[in-house]
Amino acid sequence: MCVGILAALAASFIASGAMAAKKPAGAWQVIRQPDPVTGRSTCTVAAIDAAGGSAFSRTGALYPVVENNPVHGLLVGVSSGGRFRLPAGDILWRVDDRPFRELRAADNPAPAGTTPVAPVPPGPNDAATKAMQEAMASTMRLTAGMTATSTMASGPRARDMLAELLAGHQLLYRSASAAPDFGLPSSEALRVGQYTAKGQRPIPIDDSFRVGVTSCGIAP
Hints:
By secondary structure, the protein is α+β, with helices and mostly antiparallel strands. The protein has 4 helices and 14 strands.
């Protein structure tokens, strides 16, 4: 009976447009996505939900991903799921007992095809011109971050995070805004990791992760 209920739930998610794939042997699975327009192909290792023999993602939920991106290279962070993606926002991220990291959506790599801020011709006050250019660039980053459905680190920081994952055993993360920094404590601070039959648990960094990043050409 329980298996039938889980299968029905999985079918419901799939019918509503959630991403579906073969159930992984471990916590992580490889998702390859070609783009029929650009011809580019992305390979992602993600820990998404699994039930009734299928894997899927849900609208409103956040999932950890490590991506081999054809434009930006290695990306590590969190993506929202489901057919209708919501902004991911800033993220708190921690592997084992290492110090936590804050991933800021405003620090995302610039989307492909983004037009940079046009330089302003030098004027009588070069310092004021430079300040204006920096303010314009900062505003564009903040605006893009507010609407981004993934919050990702790139470059050296992404490589550091990948090294932590490869050496680690479990991952915790949540939205940075899920709990207040001060005032009355919120139970939302405990909503980390993944839901299991035994409650909220850290996401295991098991062999499926290491096999996945090798399959995607992310790590040897």
